[in-house]
Design brief:
The structure is a single chain. 12% of the residues are buried. By secondary structure, this protein is mainly alpha-helical. The chain has two domains: 246 residues, Four Helix Bundle (Hemerythrin (Met), subunit A) (Up-down Bundle); 174 residues, Orthogonal Bundle (Helix Hairpins), CATH 1.10.287.950. It is built from seven helices and no strands.
C-alpha cells in the first residue's frame, strides 16, 4: 500500500477483507452443519424404521402362537385360518425388511429369523395334526410345550438379536454424527481464529503504515505551526456534536444495562424452572418403574390363570369320560330291568313282586340317564367358559406384553428429558453469569463514556483559545489533502 490509496480507502479495504473472511467462515459453518444434520437424520430414520419393523415381526410371531394355542383348546377351524393369515403377514413383513439395504450381519440375523420361523411352523403343524386325531388335551399340551414353545423361544431370541443390533447401529450412527458435529465445530473455531489473526495482522499493518504517514505530517505541523485559529470554529462544532453523540450513547448504554439485568433475571427463573422440571422427570421415571414392576406381576398371575384353566379343561374332559361310563351303565341297567320285567310277567303271580322291583330299577336307570345328559350339558358349558376365559387371558397377556415394552420406552424418554433439562439448567446458569459480567462491563463503559463526554465539553471550551495557523499551513494542508484524497495537491 503506497500513497496512491487514501486514508479512507485503506480503512475500507481492511474492513472489506475482514467481512470476506467472516462470510467465508459463516458459509462453511452453515454448509457443514447442514450436511452433518442431514446425514444424521438419514441414518437414524433408516435404523429406526428397521427397529419398528422388527417389533411388528415380534407381534406377528406372538399371534401365531396364540392362534395355535386357541385351536388346541377349542379345536375351531377359525383359529387355523387366523394362523395362516398371521403367517402370511409375518412372511410379508420379513420380505419387506430384507429388501432394504442391509449389512452382512443384518442379513445373517434375518436368515436366522426366517429359519426359526419355519421351524416353529413345522412344529406347530405337527401338533395341529396330532390334535385333529387325538382328544387328549394333556398329551397335546405336553407335545406343544416340548416342540412349539422351544421353537417360539428361538424365534423370539432371533428377533431380539436383530432389534438389539439395529439399536446398537443406531447408537453408533448417533455417536458418529456427534463426532462429525464436533469436527465441524472445531473447524469453525479454527477458521474463525485464522480470520481473527488475519484481521489483527491487517490492522497492525494498516496502523503502522498510516501511523508513519500521519506522524510525519503531524511532526511538520508541530514544528511549523504556532496557532490553529482558522480550525478553531470547525473543531468547536465537531466537539459539540461529539458531546451530543456521547450523551446519546450514554443513554443507550443505560438502557442496555437495564436490558442485561432483565435477561439475567429471566435466566435465573429459567434455571429454577429447569430444576423443578428435572425433579418432575425423575419422579415420573420412578413412577414408571413401579408401574412396570406391577405389570410384570400381573403377567405372572395371568400365566398362572392360563395354567389352571388348561388343567380345569383336562379334568372336565375326564369327568366327561366318567359320564360316558355312567350313561352306558344306565343303558345296560335299563335293558336288564326290561328283561327282568319280561321274565317276571312270564312267571305269573310268583314273579309279580320281582316285576315291581324290576320296574323301579328301570325307572331309576332312566333318571340316571337323564341326569348324565344334564351333567354333560353343564360340562359343555364349562368347557365353553374355559375356552372364552383362556382367549381373554391370552388377549390380556398380549396387552400386558405391549404395555411392558411401552413402559420401557416411556422410562427411557423420562431419562432423556431429565438429561436435556440438566443441560438446559447448566446453559441457563452460564447465561445468567455471562449476563451479570456483561452488565458490569457495560456499566464500566457507561462511566468511560461519561468521562469522554466531559472531556469533549472541556475540549469545546479550550478550542476557542487555539492559536492561528503558521506560515507553512498551506503546504501542510496540501500534504494532508494527498493523504485523504490522492491527487488533490497535484
Amino acid at each position: 500500500m503506497g500513497r496512491s490509496f487514501s486514508f479512507g480507502q485503506k480503512i475500507g479495504l481492511g474492513f472489506t477483507v475482514v467481512a470476506l473472511v467472516a462470510l467465508l467462515v459463516a458459509g462453511l459453518a452453515v454448509y457443514s452443519l447442514r450436511a452433518a444434520v442431514a446425514e444424521k437424520d438419514r441414518v437414524l430414520s433408516a435404523y429406526g424404521r428397521n427397529v419398528i419393523t422388527a417389533g411388528d415381526l415380534q407381534i406377528e410371531a406372538e399371534q401365531r402362537v396364540s392362534f395355535a394355542r386357541g385351536y388346541f383348546l377349542a379345536k375351531d377351524g377359525q383359529f387355523l385360518d387366523q394362523l395362516a393369515e398371521s403367517r402370511g403377514e409375518f412372511d410379508r413383513i420379513l420380505a419387506e425388511l430384507r429388501k432394504r439395504s442391509l449389512s452382512p450381519e443384518e442379513e445373517q440375523l434375518l436368515a436366522k429369523v426366517d429359519q426359526s420361523a419355519r421351524a416353529q411352523s413345522v412344529a406347530t403343524e405337527r401338533v395341529i395334526a396330532a390334535r385333529k386325531v387325538d382328544e387328549d388335551l394333556g398329551k397335546i399340551a405336553t407335545q406343544f410345550q416340548a416342540e412349539v414353545v422351544p421353537r417360539n423361544t428361538d424365534l423370539r431370541k432371533a428377533l431380539e438379536d436383530f432389534t438389539q443390533l439395529e439399536e446398537r447401529q443406531m447408537e453408533r450412527a448417533d455417536r458418529q454424527a456427534a463426532e462429525v458435529a464436533a469436527f465441524v465445530t472445531n473447524l469453525m473455531i479454527g477458521t474463525a481464529g485464522a480470520g481473527v489473526v488475519g484481521a489483527v495482522v491487517l490492522a497492525v499493518v494498516l496502523a503502522r503504515l498510516l501511523g508513519r504517514q500521519i506522524g510525519s505530517a503531524l511532526h511538520r505541523l508541530q514544528s511549523s505551526s504556532s496557532e490553529l485559529q482558522a480550525a478553531t470554529s470547525q473543531q468547536t462544532t465537531t466537539t459539540r456534536e461529539q458531546a451530543t453523540a456521547m450523551s446519546e450513547i450514554a443513554t443507550t448504554i443505560k438502557e442496555l444495562v437495564v436490558t442485561a439485568r432483565q435477561i439475567a433475571e429471566s435466566a435465573r427463573r429459567v434455571s429454577g424452572i429447569a430444576d423443578e422440571t428435572a425433579a418432575g422427570a425423575r419422579a415420573g421415571d420412578q413412577t414408571v418403574q413401579r408401574t412396570h414392576e406391577a405389570v410384570t406381576g400381573i403377567r405372572g398371575q395371568v400365566d398362572v390363570i392360563v395354567t389352571h384353566m388348561l388343567d380345569l379343561g383336562r379334568k372336565s374332559q375326564q369327568v366327561g369320560g366318567i359320564l360316558d361310563v355312567i350313561n352306558e351303565l344306565s343303558e345296560q341297567t335299563n335293558i336288564l330291568a326290561i328283561n327282568a320285567s319280561i321274565e317276571a310277567a312270564g312267571a305269573g303271580e310268583a314273579g309279580r313282586r320281582f316285576g315291581v322291583v324290576a320296574d323301579e330299577v328301570r325307572k331309576l336307570a332312566d333318571r340316571v340317564g337323564g341326569s348324565t345328559k344334564d351333567i354333560r350339558s353343564i360340562i359343555d358349558d364349562i368347557r365353553s367358559s374355559i375356552h372364552t376365559t383362556v382367549m381373554a387371558t391370552e388377549a390380556g397377556s398380549k396387552a400386558v406384553d405391549a404395555g411392558t415394552r411401552q413402559f420401557g420406552d416411556v422410562s427411557a424418554a423420562f431419562r432423556e428429558i431429565a438429561r436435556l433439562v440438566e443441560t438446559t439448567t447448566e446453559a441457563a446458569r452460564e447465561i445468567e453469569l455471562s449476563t451479570k459480567q456483561q452488565t458490569t462491563a457495560v456499566e464500566q463503559v457507561n462511566e468511560a463514556i461519561a468521562s469522554v463526554a466531559q472531556a469533549s465539553r472541556e475540549s469545546e471550551v479550550s478550542s476557542a483559545q487555539t492559536l492561528q495557523t503558521v506560515t507553512e499551513l498551506n503546504g501542510l494542508a496540501r500534504d494532508l489533502a494527498r493523504l485523504v484524497q490522492p491527487g488533490a495537491g497535484a
